[in-house]
Amino acid sequence: MNYRVAFLTILRKEIYRFMRIWPQTLLPVAVTTSLYFLIFGRMMGERIGRMGGFNYIDFIVPGVVLMAVINNSYSNVVSSFYSTKFQHYIEELLVAPVPDWIILAGYVCGGVARGLAVGCVVTVISMLFSDVRIQHWPVALGVFVLTATLFSLAGFINAMFANSFDDISIVPNFVLTPLVYLGGVFFTVDMLPGVWRGVSLANPILYMINAFRYGFLGISDIPVLQAMAVASGFIVVLAGASLLLLRKGVGIKN
Amino acid sequence: MKALSLNQLRKTYNNGLVALKGIDLDVEEGDFFALLGPNGAGKSTTIGIVSSLVTKTSGTVRIFGHDLDKGREAAKQCIGLVPQEINFNQFETVLNILVNQAGYYGVPRRRALESSEECLRQLDLWDRRDGVSRRLSGGMKRRLMIARALVHKPRLLILDEPTAGVDIEIRRSMWEFLRKINREGTTIILTTHYLEEAESLCRNIAIINHGEIVENTRMASLLASLHSESFILDLAQPLETAPELEGYSLRLEGARTLEVDVPQGVGLNRLFEQLGAQGISVRSLRNKANRLEQMFVDLLDRPSPN
Fold it and tell me: Which of B55, B90, B104 sits opposite A249 (nearest CB)?
């Protein structure tokens, strides 16, 4: 069995899927983030002043880019894998001799690829509104890969348990969005009062956004290595859980 | 060599339903094998376990000698499955569905493209290769599922109701195709509700009911054990009562329709002689039911041992 071919087949299928429906997958994020930069950056940002030593629009760029990466990595995997269950073509994979870890790797890398595509689109748009430049490429890329992987895995687990299209929208709407908005995209945790600062530190997205901001601007509320360790820890746990669910066939086998 | 060997295969679903009660079944390499049974008998569960879509409760499954638990990849590599329900991506093109399926079996892309073309041409779908699968007709979708199951060149092809809802012309062309690939060496296991299909295609047969194998034999032996066959006679003139003939049981089903039971080994010549002697002329004759259908009903009517 040639694992490389099986992996590339899943990955190619996933990339083809989101590229084919680009008006649904790539275009909306371009419009939304343009509005963020226009309203929060240009129109309101000039009144807010400087944050963390930078113009407000420069300060929010890394968070807005990573927010798009998080949402799109998650939604790519959750919607794609749930569709395979809903239309029953998951059976194409289950009857074939593809190991569970290849299935997982294929879908997660598909989510990372969408995150990369969206991240590039948003970064290019941000350059139209701000002068921000990436200071630490390895950190920015490392945090991007860890974040996209983590949320692709989370999307995969959501899809495994989902029994309806409602089930795949609950987590993004009621868990992911609040965590992202409270994760320091638009503010620094130093602005929060004591209790809320403590609560924010329990939000894993805060660590990733700060580490990503370090990659862009060279500033972070959280030590970068600590943020990467937190993300890596979550990835190990979620990957283990995903493989266990696949082995047990939760939601995909009788 | 055995293409498939099931040993004490059991399945109890989470809701407590016992679908398989420890079945044993062997299918020889090169066979064209029918697995029949009424709805809910355990056919689809058996096929689901063999093709890894259903998790078994206990027992062993060996495919060409490979244990499905210990040699999972080698066992799966031997199987091609044509499921009962349409289960391909309705938004994907016909060619991509096949190429992707070959890829899942580790077939490199260039070879996958060649193999896909071969399968699509054989099943008259090559002209539709760039079309989206949801635009295919019902018969084409069935043929696409067969092409997909064959794209990695499996040694064992399992077809679960492959001709359900397909018109007779397409059904017969599919039969010809299946006969051809069986002659070329592919072992085939077929479940179907069209008993004529099983009788026409298969050499061996197992009948499953209430999660147990109630019959497992050669098709010819099974049909030979049939005690009698029923025929419908259309008469030239109307009758008021059924005639009494020696050696035959007759019933009048309408003024011009006579039903007759012909015992195994007794020809029809004597029947026509006796009818002629009574001045009854017959315009046409047909089987009341498919022979296997009669046998099938008889077997299912037997009380369950449990």
Answer: B55
